[in-house]
Amino acid sequence: MNEISIVAGGRDDFMTVRHLVVRGDHTAIGAALAEEAHASAGWVPAEIDPVVNRARWTWFERNWPQQHARMSGAAAVLGVDPDDDRYCVDGMPTLPSGSGCSAVWCPPGLSTDGRGRLARNYDLFTLSEQALAALATGGDPTSAGGPPMASRPCVVTTHPEDGLASTAVTMSELDGCTEGINEAGLCVVLLLAEVVDSEPPTAPIGPQVGLNVTQVPRFLLDTCENVEQAKQALLGAKHYNQGVPCHYVVADASGQAFVWERGRFDTEHVLPAAEGALCATNHLLHVHPDVNDLPPDTERSFHTYARARTLAERTAAPLSAVALREALDAVAMRAVPEEPWRTMWRTVFDVADRAMSTRFYLGDGEHGLARYSAEVTFRATG
Which of left, alpha, beta for 284 (phi over 0: left; psi -120 to 50: alpha)? Predict the structure, then answer.
């Protein structure tokens, strides 16, 4: 039986967070996600180049059969013939359609209780897509309509009959995610990778063959049990960006971790964690491997270098679960009226428990402090 509930926020808060629990085979899971996307966001399949779409179906069938089955379920519930290549049946939004984030991997050897944890802040603009576009072009964002982009996140827990159970947070697409953990203890988070130098595309980029940036974490959660499998899966997959590129922190229950990112000329970089904490913000680590040599921040860098230096300083000594949370809080986006971005949520993964604990942004409070929900824990098992 599928379940849906509100776990944080509500009508009078910035965001309302739903938790969707789906059980069955992957075809049934895809049907349930499509029904939810249609009900909550009015989503219907979009037209797409049939040649590209047939290649996408073939790629998923060969490389990510779980997604292929979910797409088949979505097509069935929406009355779309899977052999009709005119329609795209993935990319299921929770909300009608640049962020900066921070993450720390604390290995078991650095943790005061011997438990490995991955923690992250998810930072984003408080604006709607229309308002952000107006701001970027010198217009008045207050006159633009639409709900804020991160105002309807969803936690999706899946219990497939024929694969790895997982729980994940998504800001937008129900068949993708920004972070998550599976029953094997593999967890992954995405962060913007080139906040300083990248320019968003001037025209919308439609679905391509392979994995978009929010499908990468879901792909790993579906197909991998540990870091070594995840490395091979990422290097063997086909990727594309529809906006600013991302990099990923991946960790597992054995205490291993790495960052995966793409560089110039489509080079791929696997950066294993050394001893101590592994910290990532919004610059490419293979370009700036030494936190002591980072350049100063600019108006376009969203404090990425300052956040990296602060995290490095605060994670040098053994970390308790509380100290790890405090390190992320030290680099959280404060409630500054003239800066339209906030830390939308903070997630802490306990790889031994196969669980993630997340608190969500509810609005601005007093004295430059943001209001957050109580931390809610979600498990990939059970």
Answer: beta
> Whole-prediction pTM value?
0.94
How confident is the model at residue 199, as a pLDDT? 62
Query: For position 120, what pLDDT does the model report?
Result: 98
Tokens, residue 253: 């229950």
Average pLDDT (168-181) is: 94
Give the helix/strand (H/E) hosting 273: none
Across the chain, mean pLDDT equals: 91
Q: How far is Cα 376 from Cα 154, in angstroms, rounded to an integer?
A: 13
Q: How far apart are CA 255 and CA 272, in angstroms?
A: 12
Band (176; pLDDT cuts 50, 70, 90): very high
Task: Quote helix, strand, coil % in the chain, to nearest 5.
Answer: 25, 30, 45
Phi-psi region of 76 (alpha: psi -120 to 50; beta: other; left: phi over 0): alpha
Q: Residue 359: is its pLDDT beyond 90?
A: yes
Environment class of 7 (CB within 10 Å of its CB; exposed 0-12, middle 13-18, buried 19+): middle
Residue 97: its pLDDT value, please?
45
3-379 has CATH 3.40.50.10470 classification: no
For residue 166, pLDDT over 90 is answered with yes
Tell me how far CA of residue 313 lies from CA of 16, 118, 279, 293, 304, in angstroms. Answer: 34, 17, 10, 14, 14
b (16+ CB within 10 A) / e for 311-341: bbebbeeebebeebbebbeebbbebeeeebb
C-alpha span between 367 and 333 (Å, rounded)? 13
Report the DSSP pairing between strands 355-364 and 341-350. Answer: antiparallel
From the list 55, 46, 54, the residue with the least C-alpha distance to 74 is 46
Longest dimension (CA), the chain: 57
pLDDT of residue 223: 98
- Segment 76-103 shows an average pLDDT of 82
Phi then psi dihedrals of residue 271, to 5 deg: -115, 95
